Amino acid sequence: MTLNVYLSGEIHSDWREQIIEGAKDLDVSFHSPVTDHDSSDDCGVAILGQEDNKYWHDHKGAMVNAIRTRKGLADADVVVVRFGEKYKQWNAAFDAGYAAALGKSIIVLNPPAHQHALKEVHAAALAVAEEPSQVVEILRYVLTGSLPG
Amino acid sequence: MTLNVYLSGEIHSDWREQIIEGAKDLDVSFHSPVTDHDSSDDCGVAILGQEDNKYWHDHKGAMVNAIRTRKGLADADVVVVRFGEKYKQWNAAFDAGYAAALGKSIIVLNPPAHQHALKEVHAAALAVAEEPSQVVEILRYVLTGSLPG
Amino acid sequence: MTLNVYLSGEIHSDWREQIIEGAKDLDVSFHSPVTDHDSSDDCGVAILGQEDNKYWHDHKGAMVNAIRTRKGLADADVVVVRFGEKYKQWNAAFDAGYAAALGKSIIVLNPPAHQHALKEVHAAALAVAEEPSQVVEILRYVLTGSLPG
Amino acid sequence: MTLNVYLSGEIHSDWREQIIEGAKDLDVSFHSPVTDHDSSDDCGVAILGQEDNKYWHDHKGAMVNAIRTRKGLADADVVVVRFGEKYKQWNAAFDAGYAAALGKSIIVLNPPAHQHALKEVHAAALAVAEEPSQVVEILRYVLTGSLPG
Amino acid sequence: MTLNVYLSGEIHSDWREQIIEGAKDLDVSFHSPVTDHDSSDDCGVAILGQEDNKYWHDHKGAMVNAIRTRKGLADADVVVVRFGEKYKQWNAAFDAGYAAALGKSIIVLNPPAHQHALKEVHAAALAVAEEPSQVVEILRYVLTGSLPG
Amino acid sequence: MTLNVYLSGEIHSDWREQIIEGAKDLDVSFHSPVTDHDSSDDCGVAILGQEDNKYWHDHKGAMVNAIRTRKGLADADVVVVRFGEKYKQWNAAFDAGYAAALGKSIIVLNPPAHQHALKEVHAAALAVAEEPSQVVEILRYVLTGSLPG
Amino acid sequence: MTLNVYLSGEIHSDWREQIIEGAKDLDVSFHSPVTDHDSSDDCGVAILGQEDNKYWHDHKGAMVNAIRTRKGLADADVVVVRFGEKYKQWNAAFDAGYAAALGKSIIVLNPPAHQHALKEVHAAALAVAEEPSQVVEILRYVLTGSLPG
Amino acid sequence: MTLNVYLSGEIHSDWREQIIEGAKDLDVSFHSPVTDHDSSDDCGVAILGQEDNKYWHDHKGAMVNAIRTRKGLADADVVVVRFGEKYKQWNAAFDAGYAAALGKSIIVLNPPAHQHALKEVHAAALAVAEEPSQVVEILRYVLTGSLPG
User: What is the pTM of this model?
Assistant: First the structure.
């Protein structure tokens, strides 16, 4: 059994690398959005032409990024949604809602301080973790039945 | 043609009342989450029993609220998602993602300051408005073909 | 908002009547399986002809009952699944699984003693209640926002 | 033609091993839940943190196990559901209902004594067997057209 | 509970009238194909223009009739498929397969002589009847719980 | 049986009025896009604010119109797609493709000169007509079984 | 591009072998029902135990065969349905209806004499052929763009 | 991550070759309709027999081509729809609508002169390009995160 796992959300820390490294002996195929912040913001205008208006600048980029995001979410067995300490991160919550409506298994990864604000997102999740290592342990258990310790 | 419209998101201002009042001559059926903040937070434990742990207190409430939210989203033709000035509002973005995956027509209503942070949500919307009156004008146009002014 | 509620499971106590009576002022449309035990067991052979073999006697009846059950589950917004004190009640758990795969909102109603054995069913539910009155309170809250007390 | 077969239900006897051994020359890919009883019960708290309350202890584990179960059921062509002599086994009946709503081909494997209690589950099955060897014979016939004897 | 019932198949006897008359006190909405044989054969060319080639004459008619058939099947809760004594009746078997793939509850009505030839169709049905009165009894039981006699 | 019919395509002749008038004694509910050309082009900027760039001017309008179009197509049993003599009419062909993927019954209404260019669209249709009166005759036949003349 | 092709229907002539031989240089994966008549009739009782009643004998077999048929139809891109000269062949028409509801591309293969009786099945097909060699030519064209001659 | 890309539309210029050549180092699987104009027009009658009537000549061909088109669209992650300078190109707009209803990511490729006429098609797209090289750049970015320049 190969698991397709999509790693959605925060792009300012190395949580993806921690999970991918921790799971390197497991039969997992990981996918992610483009995590280079500038590329992600500017991809639309860089390819399809400049916009004077910031709204359309952003819109073109968000639409191009959606090609990758939708593919990643549609193919996933498990969607891990990471909320970091800062920023609005509405894209992460949007991905969680999208994944929920598709019936995907959702793991939310967030610091404890966000617990109350994320309660509706948690209600759609099968697991809520605080550390990337816990996500790895879940993937290991799901694939092999092995528990930590 | 009756339109089913679900009004998702911010519960601290009277934007829902403005839209419902403005559209009172139109063939629209509006639905919303429970907008009483305390009831929404406490419904789970009030009905199903207290919890010592704040996480499970919140969880029980979010699950009960999901019965209403899912029904409202599933039945909707149009989902209006309102982002206010404050708070994380991840439930609003979650609803937007959920509605997008179901193929619902989405109208986002937000102050201009949130434009960049909402770009992925906007990319899934058919309209982005700043004022409740614009939402009314869209509903009026969709149902009757009449434009303002 | 009218809620379609299917009342699945145990047929040996008056829990359905308690819920229907308690919710009589609410905009709910209730549906149930045939709850007469003998009719439910014998409907197949009574209409379609006797069987010598007990397996086919039961099979014919279960198939005819499935016409009603499938309709009830397919039309439901909320499925309440009741587990009583006795018997195997595999039909109740089957209905819960069926409803879960259809994405229905599930409320499980069971005595505390069954908690561990029902944990997989509970994991698919939005609420777990012990008393019919709690189901009524959930329906009232979902439809009106009112909480008990 | 490769068949994906999910082996759901009882974890206290070697029925899975008998089927896998018997079908080892066939083009079948078998999947199962985690069948170590203690790991299955404790996986949630072992990875995501202890709970004082037994309900939430169980809930966390059932949710983590659901990641594997959902994947197994979603990918399956055939779902074999085994009911043993003992216990409530509501998870088996739940899986059967879930598989039925997804339109999967279901084979039920149970001792004759459970016949009446399983009639609604049998009504959703394409085959009802008493011995693991019969399941192997069905898989062999479906894949190769060969019958026993 | 209103049942939508589509009456598919043989158009040379009064079985539809018998069922509709027998069920006139029940909350059932019946739909059928056009049962006038000549109209059904010629509707395409009568409206859309003559064809020299018999194949296209038939094709145009079958396509126009499909507008009604698809609507009837899509809206149905229960599909009754009647096979008479004579003719190929491939349209009846086609409707049964179409209904099966949509997950509709199927009742097959046929003379005993056709039993072996219909075994694959029967395998997708929830009831197999020989007389229209049995179909009425099933509808009565499904809607009211009452059995004959 | 009420038929929901969506009238898509050309807005420069009175074909919709002819069909609606001709079918006024039938149980049909008709829906259409906004057929005022200027309103349809300008609705986006009239409600949501001016755009300097013609592309975004058009885009905003097309998105708002999509709210009505999607609702009309999603609710339809039958989609009539009219191609007139002039213009590109890609929106009509787009609606036909959209309707085809949803499994809707499609009637194409076009002048004979367009036959070759529309062959892929015709291949997805259940009827191809040249006159609005033929569409009325199809609706009459589908609903009542009556043929012209 | 690999095409999955399911070959449904008549089992008394070598039409399947002709198609498979003719397409042996193409990227096609063929699947079929079990075509040994006796095995197909008796598989249920041979594996799951004898039945006194011919109906249940047939039923058990049809159900076991359905495991293979459903898999073949669900995985298919193209379903070829063959009607021979003789017999009722309702299983072939049933498969055609099932495939149509799943949106599969259908090719019907039948002698000209059956044209009128098959008109509803033809109305759901993308091609109607009289010879196995024509089916091969269609598969070749679809995969390579090459036409005969 | 492999992307399945279907290249729909205009067959009179080498835009497909430009995209395939430009993307030859990327993990993309391209599919297209048959682009030989005569073969595409005549495939139906060449294989299935001549027709006197031009409408049925075209119809037979369009139906056979639909086998390939539907497979290509159903399997695609991304659908590129090219509109050239000339012709009606209703098949391209039809494919765009079909892809939109399936929820595919759509890239439209057209000369600027068609902008207004394509506004409803653009409203369903995630990117609108003028040059094949821009499509390549989008595919490169989606797969690797690399931007041009």
Answer: 0.97
